[in-house]
Amino acid sequence: MAEKRPNILMFMTDHQRADALGCAGHPVLKTPAIDRLAGEGMRFTHSFTCASACMPSRAALWSGLYPHVNGVVRTDWKSWLSPATPTIQSLLSGAGYLTVAVGKMHFVPWGTLGGFQHRVIIESKYSTAEDEYHRALRERGFWGKHIGHHTPGFGKAYKAMPSPLPEEYHIDGYIGRRGVETLRAIRAEPFFLVVSFCGPHDPYDPPEPYASRYDSAAMPKPVARPGEAASFPPVIRDVALSYGLERLDFTRMTPDDIGRVRALYYGNLSLIDRWIGNLLETLDELGLSERTLVAHTCDHGDYIGNHQLLFKHGPGCDDETRVPLLIRWPGRIPPQANDAFVENVDLMPTYLEAAGLKPPPQCQGRSLFDLLDGRGEPWRDAVVTHLEGRGVCYRDRHWKYTRFPGQPFDVMYNLQADPNELRNLCHFQDRGWVDRAADLSAKLVAWYYQHPAQTATTGYGGYGGLNLPK
């Protein structure tokens, strides 16, 4: 590794799909700042989350451990990593890095440092906790003007409504500004700075001018099949028919509804991209770019109307399990795209190797420098994503199989014949599906035995409801 340890600047979003990038070939969305990272570093085209919900995904990222190992399998605001579990931030803090987090962390308790030395605490669009952002709204007389469950017509609009707030007091504009201020205030190197945005997580609520940036009538059409929700196991179908406090029925969304959702979702991303651009320009201005590794990723995706669904909580389609991952390190990482199957647990060993540190022995991720340096063949041929206790998804290049314990049937897609994941073979009972599903189920079980819960290390043991045979 390089003799001098690099700074590490990490951007995170929430609910950003892997294809929600200009550099991924999106026909409408423009993300010039994130595209800059792709042009100056590596974009991983097949990056997956280990969990399709916020808290389990983030716990896996910070710890380098899969959800069934680290114990965080649901977003319940109760479960979190054992204090004995090493994390990226705790290990870098102990190795002399200044570690700072700005924005959404999803720690438990929500206001804890979570291994960072400093935090600017801004937790959630829906939270009513007295964090820095919500105090600012109250002080400016903006409390109640932000979009949320209290907003009239919120459910009818499927949570897609332009924010009346000025950009600087929209939650992501606020996080971006505080991120720039924090970067400018740092006086020590090396540092590990995380700027974690709350969007484009619902509500889809960009302020102007981002709310008007995209024409809802010109949005890409959703990928869906009429009556598709009926092919999902009941645990998923019931969510689609009655979601959340507003009891939303996604199957009743009209083309206009989906067009509005998508236009505002992309507006949220354009706002975030603007602030990522400001942060990259601040790095340049401060003369830090050449000695800073910069990464951008997300916790999980969003259906935004595909498969008659919104948000997450689906049957394990790529819409929710596949996420952006881009890494730039000038002079070390050549600009290129890489299609290896990578996971968010891989970030811990990657950052630690960049810092000249070894990952803890229980770390289940794999340093991405194995790919960057061409020393990592063969790479993994499949990934597994936990669906917040409802099911567990196994995916390789050809097949996807999601096991739903206690449900009348599972979900299986032939990705080569059905890349849009429209025909659940377990529901339609196509000829030959039983043997194939049994084979994939066996591979999923084998994966669990290859990645056993390490109770002595983490204080937790379990298999995410999979009910493994003894």
Topology:
Layout: E1 7-14, H1 32-40, E2 42-48, H2 54-63, H3 67-70, H4 88-94, E3 98-103, E4 118-121, H5 132-140, H6 171-185, E5 191-200, H7 234-241, H8 255-285, E6 292-298, H9 318-321, E7 325-328, E8 336-343, H10 347-354, H11 369-372, E9 382-386, E10 392-396, E11 399-403, E12 411-414, H12 425-428, H13 433-450, H14 455-458
Parallel strand pairs: 1-5, 1-6, 2-8, 3-4, 3-5
Antiparallel strand pairs: 2-7, 6-7, 9-10, 10-11, 11-12
Helix pairs in contact: 6-8
Q: Tell me, what is the CATH class?
A: Alpha Beta
Overall mean pLDDT stands at 93
Which regions contain 5 or more consecutive residues with pLDDT less than 50?
A: 455-461
CATH topology assignment: Alkaline Phosphatase, subunit A
- Integer tally of domains: 1
- Assigned CATH superfamily: Alkaline Phosphatase, subunit A
